[in-house]
Design brief:
Layout lengths: L9 H14 L8 E3 L8 H14 L1 E5 L9 H9 L17 E3 L21 E4 L13 E8 L3 E2 L2 E4 L1 H11 L1 H7 L5 E3 L2 E3 L2 E4 L2 E3 L2 E3 L5 E3 L9 E2 L3 H15 L6 E3 L5 E5 L3 E4 L2 E2 L7 E7 L6
Parallel strand pairs: 1-2
Antiparallel strand pairs: 2-16, 3-19, 4-17, 5-16, 5-19, 6-18, 7-15, 7-17, 8-11, 8-14, 9-10, 12-13
């Protein structure tokens, strides 16, 4: 079967595009899954997660765990959905799950130097865009233990929708962002030298199962784009698409007991304000599998 992501096949793309747009959710409520205990999904709950990720690459759940700080919640939930191989790196805990919270100056924690561990807004991105190809992050799970006193909302956009909007504008934009040197993350240097090597790769690529993967960040520092007219035009076009809310851009805020299970879709985060009683805490788990395995 011809891939809809083959730029030479307009027929396959047209058929897939129509089906995608006909079924794509336009409200956050369309991707909600009400569950009891995320550690023990019912078959109905599990099927709902899988169906939504097959259609929209994401689902937002509302659970009954509330402010339970048990880190087994995201791990056990992910395992039931085919998410098993966690991406462990230097900023995760020993269990490969990251507690995302503001790190204050009083905490001797190197994580506080990175924006997810602050109260600042985060621009559009997919997770793990700096990883090597063998550590591609295809699945992402966020679980909320506590929300901020105010702010911290997310925007979500299925990366397949972003692909459609860009390809409809100009297929050459997709072609430019699919080259293996389209986007480069410079090396990370610490006091011992090179802590992470330069990572070069495409924005759009194909997974082994024929699904679409997107690697992207809208940040303007610690990133280098290919310096040719085609890539620069494609980058600008994609930035404009993401800067303009679409009919498929979903918005909401995770509250205690809620979470996101996704195939690493595009997402951002608004800045937020905390109080001593409301200190934001999310658990983040990144996986090499897509939802469903």
């Amino acid at each position: 079967m011809t891939s809809p992501f083959d730029l030479q096949s307009s027929a396959a793309y047209s058929e897939w595009r129509q089906r995608k747009l006909d079924t794509a959710p336009r409200r956050l409520e369309d991707i909600l899954v009400e569950i009891g205990d995320p550690r023990r999904l019912t078959s109905v709950e599990r099927d709902r997660f899988l169906a939504l990720n097959a259609i929209a690459n994401m689902a937002v759940y509302v659970g009954k765990t509330g402010r339970d700080p048990d880190k087994e919640i995201p791990r056990m939930l992910g395992a039931q959905l085919g998410l098993k191989t966690l991406d462990s790196h230097w900023l995760t805990d020993d269990d490969a799950i990251s507690p995302i919270s503001v790190r204050g100056a009083e905490q001797r924690d190197e994580r506080r130097e990175f924006i997810p561990y602050t109260d600042k807004p985060i621009k559009w991105h997919t997770d793990g865009y700096y990883n090597t190809p063998e550590r591609t992050v295809r699945g992402l799970l966020l679980h909320c233990v506590e929300s901020a006193a105010s702010g911290g909302e997310n925007q979500l956009l299925d990366h397949e929708i972003a692909y459609i909007l860009l390809r409809d504008q100009n297929p050459d934009h997709v072609r430019a962002l699919s080259t293996p040197d389209a986007m480069t993350i410079p090396p990370r240097i610490d006091e011992t030298g090179i802590a992470r090597a330069e990572q070069q790769g495409p924005v759009f690529s194909m997974n082994a199962d024929g699904t679409l993967h997107m690697r992207y960040t809208a940040r303007t520092v610690s990133i280098a784009w290919k310096q040719n007219s085609a890539t620069q035009a494609a980058k600008t076009a994609l930035e404009r698409i993401l800067a303009t809310p679409t009919a498929w851009t979903l918005r909401g805020r995770l509250e205690p007991g809620m979470g996101l299970v996704s195939n690493n879709v595009l997402h951002d985060r608004a800045g937020f304000t905390e109080t001593p009683e409301r200190r934001r805490l999310l658990y983040r788990a990144r996986y090499y599998e897509r939802v469903g395995g």
